[in-house]
Amino acid sequence: MHVEENFCGGKEEFSTITTDDENDIQTRDETRKKFEELFKFKTEVKWLNVISITLLHMIMLYACFTVEWYKDLRTNIWMFIVSVIGAIGVTAGAHRFWTHRAYKAKWQLRIILLIFYATAGQNNLYDWIRDHRVHHKYTDTNADPHNSNRGFFFSHVGWLMLKKHPDVIRKGRQIDMRDILADPVAMFGYKYFSIIKFIFAFLLPIMVPVYGWNETWSRACKSQIIRYVLSLNGTWSVNSVAHIWGSKPYDASINPTENKYVALIALGEGWHNYHHVFPWDYKTAELNNYIFNFTTMFIDFFAKIGWAYDLKQPSEELVKNVVMKKGNRNLRQSVSHPDSKID
User: What residue stretches are annotated with the Fatty acid desaturase domain (predicted)?
Assistant: First the structure.
């Protein structure tokens, strides 16, 4: 602290500002500006999406309360099987294979992955891959399609109800998609996706129980509506729940977390702190735990028969070095053994 005379002849005390103080002030200013930009940003509501998503959830709730759950367990089992098939299409197909190129797949497996992805009934494969690549490159910024800094609802489903932030559109156009354009299976899926989606996400799942074991059309439709909506929310939870609640043993500075509950319902996609540090790992997790990572078991099976190959994963030494530098080392043991509690 030092004293100087002011222009009126009085004396004022001035604090000596250090380099650390300047850095703190700059950091606070940058944070304040980011939040101001975040909350000042206004975008147009996609009312068609708002109405359709809301109605879909209302119909699902009606189906849950009116469906005869114990009339024929084969229909319930089929509902579960279709859920797993769709989830595998997202996790092993759209995510680990096409988006991150975490492994290579022969054309036979690529066709299976395309059909499985269509069963999930989500966005066009090309759009899904582009948006997810943008998400990883600009995680939790304005360029992230489902920026978790905008809150749980936005990152979960709200981002589908609003027009994209201009940064998302601008950065999305810069994403390299040449590998997808060069993949005939992916491009076939892109060209005919509406037809393929209708057949495998809705038509066949409903027709199989009706013509397979004389299930009623009503119960077949209700069970698949329940399956479809719950599956969507399972995928969305990776963008929301696994970006808010959980531990950060691999990089404590980012939002993505390790969440075993999301890992269970999303077939292994909940080890999200690890995944954002090592996105090229075909397991999206440090260990091969098939209970909490069924997708890894799926890929490993096809690797054994030669349809999946060049499975990528970081060395144990690299993982340890990253944990020592960026992560919460005290939590590494808990995520290495998913049965243990995650804070």
Answer: 78-279
